[in-house]
Predict the structure of Gfo/Idh/MocA-like oxidoreductase C-terminal domain-containing protein.
Amino acid sequence: MDIFGSEGCMSVDTTTSLPLQIYTGKEASIPDLLRTPRFWIADEVDHFLKCILHNQEHMCTAEEGKKVLEIALGARESAEKHEKVVFD
């Protein structure tokens, strides 16, 4: 899936060893956090469970999670309708 914005785009493909690539202007980058031999979701689940077990704050807030969900649903809507979706 490719997501385009006014300052560049990002390419998401969880079936490859480089699941996220970011393109801005003439530069392309791969976030360091994704350069891991383990599948990224394993690290996410591990962190989440540690937060529950040790009563710690998660690195992402519920508000951030809500915004990510809105973006994902908007991307799906855009793909289904073949139209641009505008977010607040």
